[in-house]
Inverse folding.
């Protein structure tokens, strides 16, 4: 007998988060695995297979009775076939038929998409994007991901690669990006860029940032730069304003192109929201054309690390609904 439970899997660069989700979007049981221990595709399939079996037992069911399993992967995904073309910063993942392998391992329906797409989908349905007609989701972290929910549907583009906001060029011949190109938004607002700016600020004598880093054992993090800004460090505050302005330039182009009514910003770097949001808001009010600029609201994500889990569950539900529509059309 089919279960009411769906499992959402959020495959991050550091951790893999799994949750058992009911039809109302409640995450009843969760577990977290180390991504480093499952860097190879075969390890990933076996590791999360065991974790999903454990979650199913906690719900009193079996994997073959689950409504399905959705996976958000941090890279390029061919969504129709569930093939992972490549993963950001994870070697060895090239044209991996993840959907087929998981379905064989778990004996239930599986679906795979880009992780930023699924965070946007989760926020649209259950979080800060509820009620939006055209939503742009942005995740700020090691990379800068994007997802589009237009007209109530996840928009994936002709080849399933839509929403790569982090690789819009905002400065021709600008900074080198991890993708190999120059001037990408990610090269100005991703974690590596923020840490480089923080290191430059420390060399100029930024206090209390230098003290905070020394007390933390010498390791600079975005969280420490945020704390320095909170304590009044002028260099740290200027740096976050630069991040907000650069992000605003990228999003101004998105506003002109798509005319969204909501932009939802999440990811670890979004914890610095009080320090970069004012410059971001000013830029997005000033740079786009008047009509789309007036229509959009920019808000911080609400779901935290549940967004990817819930979006992955929704991917299963949406694919289930699409199959039902196709059957109905063919009847």
């Amino acid at each position: 007998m089919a279960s009411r439970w769906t499992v959402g899997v959020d495959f991050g660069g550091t951790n893999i988060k799994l949750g058992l989700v009911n039809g109302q979007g409640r995450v009843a049981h969760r577990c977290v695995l180390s991504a480093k221990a499952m860097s190879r595709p075969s390890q990933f399939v076996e590791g999360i297979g065991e974790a999903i079996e454990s979650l199913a037992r906690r719900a009193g069911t079996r994997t073959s009775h689950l409504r399905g399993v959705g996976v958000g992967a941090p890279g390029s995904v061919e969504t129709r076939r569930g093939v992972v073309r490549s993963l950001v910063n994870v070697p060895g993942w090239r044209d991996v038929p993840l959907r087929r392998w998981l379905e064989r391992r778990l004996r239930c329906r599986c679906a795979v998409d880009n992780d930023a797409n699924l965070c946007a989908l989760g926020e649209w349905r259950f979080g800060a994007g509820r009620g939006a007609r055209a939503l742009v989701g942005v995740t700020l972290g090691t990379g800068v991901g994007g997802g589009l929910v237009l007209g109530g549907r996840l928009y994936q583009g002709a080849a399933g690669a839509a929403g790569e906001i982090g690789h819009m060029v905002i400065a021709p011949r600008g900074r080198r990006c991890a993708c190999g190109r120059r001037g990408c938004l990610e090269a100005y607002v991703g974690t590596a860029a923020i840490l480089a700016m923080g290191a430059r600020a420390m060399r100029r004598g930024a206090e209390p940032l230098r003290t905070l880093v020394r007390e933390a054992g010498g390791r600079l993090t975005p969280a420490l730069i945020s704390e320095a800004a909170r304590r009044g460090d002028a260099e740290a505050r200027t740096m976050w304003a630069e991040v907000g302005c650069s992000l605003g330039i990228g999003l101004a182009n998105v506003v002109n192109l798509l005319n969204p009514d909501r932009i939802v910003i999440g990811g670890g770097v979004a914890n610095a929201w009080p320090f970069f949001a004012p410059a971001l808001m000013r830029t997005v009010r000033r740079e786009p054309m008047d009509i789309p600029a007036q229509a959009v609201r920019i808000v911080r994500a609400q779901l935290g690390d549940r967004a990817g889990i819930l979006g992955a569950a929704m991917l299963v539900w949406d694919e289930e609904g699409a199959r039902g529509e196709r059957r109905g059309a063919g009847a």
In short: The mean pLDDT is 91.
